[in-house]
């Protein structure tokens, strides 16, 4: 039919300024980083460092901690020093905590200069202190806390209102020659959020921190974030992401990494390709897929394992994967690298797949392909 070939890639990445959040570069050609925020009291140094360690082990690149009190500000120096990943202090209204966070060696500060200006105009001093230490600032505009002036002008938190607010906040720092900024314009509606980021991406070259705010419990928040981030990242927009879930922060990291892996923006780790099952299935596909997933949990190599319920698509998918099973008649044909290596009874499918997966993983590790 003469169908032209299409490139297997996303749109070219938007050209943003690169800045350094501690050891992690954000923007420019740096890989899209994944962030989360601790849920402990920051003043509880032990609990906060424990949660940061869990996040680090899950693959978190940058962590943010809230700083609403003096006790929290006092804890920042120890946390910033002992954390294995860069720590961002999240501050609202109180300029004294911004200075404390900069002094404490935090890798960046999230603060909205509009709030500071309103209460105690210390923007010039913050710009000076942040410049002197090379501490970037994230301006985080949020639909829920949009400036009253803009709410009156636009009627509600429209994309235009969010972007105008962000650019105005930036201008408060730019007046003092400070441009080490990244921006977020979060909204709980993915359509508004995507529109706001698209608009913002055209209006400035600051790196963008993507987030759907108050995205909800794990299931809904995952879908909302994946939909919105997918739309933006596939257009090359977004330099760092935070999935917000009403769930433990490590779950946010898992979802964020999966989104990036699905878009080919991160090395893949284990991928289970399993069919949804249907009236043709001759084995319990859900159970098989669950057991294989559980058995291979934590595997770091980029292994693709297919678990298929019958011979319609089974052999094709199993052959395409590194390892797979095409089931039928109470048996499973086990494929490794495109070849059938054996046929086993249904009761042996899971253990055979796990056994073969471990052999392949070992081989891949020896060949140096672990991600
Ligand atoms: Fe149905 Fe077979 Fe396809 Fe699974 S592989 S969805 S059982 S047709």
UniProtKB/TrEMBL annotation:
User: Which pathway is this protein assigned to?
Assistant: Isoprenoid biosynthesis; isopentenyl diphosphate biosynthesis via DXP pathway; isopentenyl diphosphate from 1-deoxy-D-xylulose 5-phosphate: step 5/6
Cofactor(s) recorded in Swiss-Prot or TrEMBL: [4Fe-4S] cluster
- IspG C-terminal domain location is 271-356
Its EC number(s) = 1.17.7.3
| Domain named IspG TIM-barrel: residues | 17-256
The UniProt keywords, alphabetically, are:
4Fe-4S, Iron, Iron-sulfur, Isoprene biosynthesis, Metal-binding, Oxidoreductase
Note the PANTHER family from the entry: 4-HYDROXY-3-METHYLBUT-2-EN-1-YL DIPHOSPHATE SYNTHASE (PTHR30454), 4-HYDROXY-3-METHYLBUT-2-EN-1-YL DIPHOSPHATE SYNTHASE (FERREDOXIN), CHLOROPLASTIC (PTHR30454:SF0)
Name used for this protein in its record: 4-hydroxy-3-methylbut-2-en-1-yl diphosphate synthase (flavodoxin)
